[in-house]
């Protein structure tokens, strides 16, 4: 049973994730069992985006709270999960990822003292290759280049479990629902801006990194990130969304 005021709400957006969701939930169970505050203060919410497979059945069988979100926009799905959440701290993770056993203990450590507004746990790829290493290196370099340019781009390149306090999430208005992609980057930018106003900082990367799924790289090639994102950005400038829908929404 979920307590009336849980400390954490872990929100998992999902569309046809029957192949990956059980793996993630196994790691969530381990992290909950290892949480020093007790497993019962962590609720797990699966925001189901009109799945046609067994995603919803799996989530319910594993004891997750579920909420249906019909609109096929990832920001809407994340926000849909947040709307039904009871936790003081909201945490978001993609259904094809895996979380570290110390995730919740580490987030507690990072948020202790009130100097941090939120952030990301960071990631490690689930497999290794030269292409993946170069991709991560490129993203890290971009983060260094743009770091310190206030208001332009400084969310950090890490992703993984994204976390913040519920009151700050509500103050920002949650994820931007106008974007087919990049909604996670915008959330971090919005968190950083709120942090500037309130004297708090955003953390990029922790000691409990999530395992990042490489299924996009398995499908498109380990070097594809050097070509597809620039093409997506160009289409965005032209006001077109067909490529973004194919890349993020139509694969399953």
Please name the defining characteristics of this protein:
252 residues, 7-stranded mixed beta sheet, two-stranded parallel ribbon, alpha/beta, Spore Coat Polysaccharide Biosynthesis Protein SpsA, Chain A
Description:
By secondary structure, the chain is of the alpha/beta class. The protein has a single domain (8-129, 158-220), classed as Alpha-Beta Complex (Spore Coat Polysaccharide Biosynthesis Protein SpsA, Chain A). The chain contains ten helices and nine strands. The strands form two sheets. It has a seven-stranded mixed beta sheet with strand order 3-2-1-4-7-5-8, sandwiched between helices. The chain has a two-stranded parallel sheet with strand order 6-9. Helix 2 (55-61) links the parallel strand 2 and strand 3. The longest helix has 17 residues, at 130-146. It is globular and about 45 Å long. 38% of the residues are buried. The model is unreliable at 145-155 (pLDDT under 50).
Summarize the structure.
This protein is α/β, with parallel strands linked by helices. It has helices spanning 21-33, 55-61, 74-83, 103-111, 130-146, 166-172, 183-198, 215-220, 228-237, 242-248; strands spanning 8-14, 42-48, 65-68, 89-92, 116-120, 123-125, 162-165, 201-204, 210-212.
Secondary-structure topology with pairs:
Blueprint: E1 8-14, H1 21-33, E2 42-48, H2 55-61, E3 65-68, H3 74-83, E4 89-92, H4 103-111, E5 116-120, E6 123-125, H5 130-146, E7 162-165, H6 166-172, H7 183-198, E8 201-204, E9 210-212, H8 215-220, H9 228-237, H10 242-248
Parallel strand pairs: 1-2, 1-4, 2-3, 5-8, 6-9
Antiparallel strand pairs: 4-7, 5-7
């Amino acid at each position: 049973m979920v307590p009336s005021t849980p400390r954490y709400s872990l929100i998992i957006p999902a569309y046809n994730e029957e192949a990956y969701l059980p793996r993630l939930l196994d790691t969530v169970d381990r992290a909950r069992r290892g949480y020093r505050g007790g497993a019962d203060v962590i609720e797990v919410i699966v925001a189901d985006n009109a799945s046609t497979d067994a995603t919803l059945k799996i989530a319910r069988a594993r004891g997750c709270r579920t909420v249906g979100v019909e609109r096929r926009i990832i920001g809407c799905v994340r926000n849909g999960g947040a709307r039904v959440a009871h936790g003081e701290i909201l945490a978001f993770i993609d259904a094809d990822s895996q979380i570290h056993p110390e995730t919740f203990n580490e987030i507690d450590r990072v948020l202790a003292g009130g100097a941090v507004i939120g952030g990301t746990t960071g990631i490690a790829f689930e497999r290794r290759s030269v292409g993946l290493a170069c991709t991560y290196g490129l993203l890290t370099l971009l983060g260094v280049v743009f770091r310190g340019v206030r208001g332009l781009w400084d969310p950090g390149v890490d992703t993984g479990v994204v976390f913040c306090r519920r009151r700050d999430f509500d103050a920002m208005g949650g994820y931007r629902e106008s974007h087919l992609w990049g909604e996670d980057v915008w959330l971090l930018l919005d968190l950083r801006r709120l942090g500037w106003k309130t004297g708090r900082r955003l953390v990029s990367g922790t000691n409990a990194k999530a395992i990042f799924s490489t299924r996009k790289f398995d499908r498109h090639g380990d070097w594809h990130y050097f070509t597809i994102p620039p093409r997506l950005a160009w289409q965005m400038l032209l006001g077109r969304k067909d490529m973004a829908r194919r890349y993020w929404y139509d694969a399953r």
